[in-house]
Amino acid sequence: IRAEDHYSSAEGFQQTLIGCYLAMGETDLYGENLTWHMVEMLGRQYDARKNTAADDYDLDRYNYKTTKSTEVIEKVWEKSYSVIANVNDALDHIDRRKDGLDSVNYRIIKGELLAVRAYIYFDLMRLFGASMEVDADGRYIPYVETYPSTVNPPIPNREFMEKTIGDLVKARDLLKTFDVEVNPSYATSTAYRFFGSSNPAQGKFYNNRGTRLNYYAVTVLLARACLWAQKTDDALTYAQEIIDLVTAKTLQFSTSGSILSVPKMFDDLLFGFYQEKLTETFEPYVNNTNSRRLTIDDKTFFTTPTNDKRSGFIKTSTNFLTKYTVNVSDEKDKIVPNIRISEAYYIAAECLYKTDMKTAAADLMVVRKARGYSSPVLSGTMTEDAFWEALTYEYRKEFIGEGQLIFFYKRTNRPITFSEGKFDHKGKLTLPVPDSESAI
To answer: Is the pTM higher than 0.85?
Structure first.
């Protein structure tokens, strides 16, 4: 179909946008590798290094040049830039077709397209580039904003992050119209965010805001990106906005019931990917008779103390992750969690601990209490070392199977904590840009 024909109506833009989300939810990207598999291997949440027959043995050893590792890494790179190309193509047309779109449709489509592009670029930087802590001015990957595009030299980290944050700021402003002003309940209500039983008056396209980069998810994503870019004041501003919305009860933050039965904790999940065959894809890795099995590296850490509801993430009899095996409902079983309200509390705490340890400790305690773990209480008099130990505890527990831990270690340049002690990664968390890129 000619692009001019495809983008002659709102439906063409809607189809491209949904297609981008579906592509992101595939196993090569966030349906597996960039959430519960490859990146969790790199963060040593699993103990594949003890199983030489596992497919992931090389990745667990940070050996990126073997055939298996190269194949996985190349797919991440290629599929990511494929989505970006589709986004850039749609963005190239949307302003020219603006007169044919109603205001809300235009703003939500363009806002999400910009958010998708920034989201993928940010993760490409986090994977294939060094952290700002290590090499703030290094050149690792290109930030392509046009379509078609062939020659794209890498740009400095600082400039790259400015472009990422700029796209997210624009996206957030555009998304505010629908998610905050026109029909807020479809993004703020847990029941509506994921598979609400009724569609908003604007139509079905505006439903399921939890599987789309909505205003609140983009706000947390902005806090995440600003923290990476070492813009702590901005990161705190965005994180605090989410915290204030929880305080005002606009957003719900709690864990209703047992994590044993609802391990994805939908109450505070702002965004997740949709993967049609998630449970089938995950099953071979939680099968004791399969050499590909992925057992949790440090079961005791996750199951102690027992009053921390997150102990339900682990099936103690098998040492397997339960997040993708517990059946909740047909549709919810296909969601891969990615952006949570709890992350806003962690980001705020990290931005504050040097100047206001009391508030930083209180932010961490909000999450712990929501997870049933209220003792011992973290105090405003704890040392910086104690704070980092507590924050690391939270990232390891809260985001298991969601792919955020590796980036915590990489961003802070802190050693990986696992069953064998502490491991100084020293650049091992930076993936090599595929050889295929140099031939383009």
So the answer is: yes
